[in-house]
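Page 42, continued from yesterday. The earlier attempt failed because a stray header line got pasted into the input along with the sequence. Redoing it now with the clean sequence only.
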Amino acid sequence: TRVLVVCDYDPALAGEMEAAAAPLLDHLLLQGPRLALISSNPTGPALAERLLQDLNASPLVARHAYLAGQQYVNLGYLAGGSSGVKYFAMSPTKAAPFALDGQPAWQQAALQGIQSLGDFATIIILSDNADSGRVWIEQAGTTNSNTPMLMVISAQAEPMILPYYDSGQIKGLVTGLAGGEAYEQTFLRPEEQTGLAQRYWNAFSTGTLVAELSILAGALWSVVAALRARSNKLGKGT
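This time it went through. Structure tokens are written below.
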């Protein structure tokens, strides 16, 4: 089984995107597919490598460590914006002939036999930007309607991407940290107490609680200060 993973997110939102994507990709990698990684974002190839290294460190995936060329191929940066994505959708072997390390990509064991996007079992898009996500849906989705497309998006991109999910153009959607945590709760990890999304969610919940308590303490202090000032004023008046 071959799966195409598109890593189109910026370093600034890497924490949210990796936490949201980790449960889905953990679940995927347990099935042992061969992966092709690509990005239309210049920083995407490096982020994809880091994401895969983090997944390899997971106790679940470590049993099936992914090696470049054998289990996955990083196709690097896909230039050209929407035109580049359309060209890749029509002819991936011509649009991205070489891997990130400079070797011929489609001759490596992980991608042998792939001639078109329709040869991939699934396309997974990781995007923090609604415009980037829409480009992949509209360009790659129309070319390969038989290949299911899944997306992991940031919370800020949800309003623009959700209609594509509602219309069935994408078959699965994980949104932000909350979505990753929900997926993680569904996909139980027998060897880990908590996964990455759960740890991030716990930290977020703790931070929110501390902020709320700080606001409450500030409000109470303001009330006490106001009452004290009023009492002093009445005392001077008498």
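Notes: The chain has a mean pLDDT of 84.
Reminder to self: strip header lines before submitting.
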